[in-house]
Amino acid sequence: MNNNSSGGGGGGGRAPREIHVEVEEEDYIEEEDDDLSFAAMESGSKKAAVAARVRGKGCGGNYYLGTMPEWSNLVKAFGPLDFLDYTLRGCGQVYFMNNPISGLILLIGLVIEKPLLAVGCLIAQIGVDIGARRAGLTGYNGILVGAAIVTFMKDEWDIPTLIIIVPYACISVLIWMFLGNIMVGTWNIPPFTFAFNFTATIFFIAYFPLAMFTPSLPTAASPGFDWDTQAVFEAVFKGVGQVMFAGSTASGVIMTLALAACSPIAAMMAVLGSSIGVLVGFAVGADAAGIEAGLWGYNPVLGAIAVGGMFYYPTVKTLVMTVINAGFCSLLFGFFKVALAPWGIPAFTFPFCFATMVVVGIGKSLPDFEPIPLPEVTVPEEHLCKRWQRSRGLYNILNGPLPFLNSVENIGTIN
Length: 415
Known about the structure:
Layout: E1 2-6, E2 18-22, H1 25-31, H2 38-43, H3 46-55, H4 69-75, H5 79-93, H6 100-113, H7 117-123, H8 130-134, H9 140-151, H10 159-187, H11 194-207, H12 229-241, H13 249-262, H14 264-283, H15 288-292, H16 298-310, H17 316-340, H18 350-361, H19 380-390, H20 394-398, E3 411-414
Antiparallel strand pairs: 1-2, 2-3
Helix pairs in contact: 5-6, 6-13, 7-9, 9-10, 9-11, 10-11, 12-13, 12-14, 13-14, 14-16, 14-17, 16-17, 16-18, 17-18
């Protein structure tokens, strides 16, 4: 199977040189049973995702782990390891990271913060689609549901809390499947964490009036955010951790490292998004406690990762759109925070879902913005490499000041 890209164009009327990327047929067959990426599973296009991986073969991956499809193939035949693999991928998928190592590091951060969060991780693996389960897609909403229930209950280790997590984690999977069929099939947009939001909202409305499930909601504080270096550092990394209800700086740093293991670009986008959330919170006069706790940062974290290389090819213009989307997420957080407060319901990740749904949904209508087809979504580094491979001047790039790209394999004759 051949994949031809335009090479570096010379001046003086010379025809552009072509670079032929040769991939053997047996490579395609060998890859055919690989586990698919987050978006590929939601689109249901296995063949397209396999072809995308083959086309991207050779993109420099020496400094990041990516989705580790080889490891997934290796453990398929071993039940306990297979279960561990997709359980850890479920943890990683909360941040769009389809990677078991990232999931393991995230799980360590969760255990440090709240040991019961691990329970939510384990009970959520009930997917009907075996491929989706192996990619961690059926787990991430259940993980968030379990984390939310544990976070807002006063008695974390009582039996009723443990029991109630199970059915609600299951409900989140069913809602995810329903929304996936509608959103992917109709608008070509992934369902993000809508299933978690709806499930957690149902739980809050249904059970908070009961005495045995008394909520433990955070209280507001007076304005006056301290802009010293330590306060900003802690607020930014707490924002990264708050995606999974981890409110300590240490957990936030650990989770940032987890993202970097799979995708350094995603880790940078997470820090950027949380920083924008802190700035927006300060600009609108939010209470200092909310900013310091990272509550203004966690929705922009997800919004920045999604737009900053996950669902758009990384470019300078995409970076601008990432900043805009992160700010949009922050402003919507302020809206949902006020709108849901009378019912005692947190904003959850509603701001991220609605803001990013709009930005991803209008991708094809924006000039000079190139959305990534859902079956081809992997990690930003691979998206960037594929775009470079297709761009003019590929030969110069491969032999220029970017040494990690020199490892590209299967480059054929330059005509």
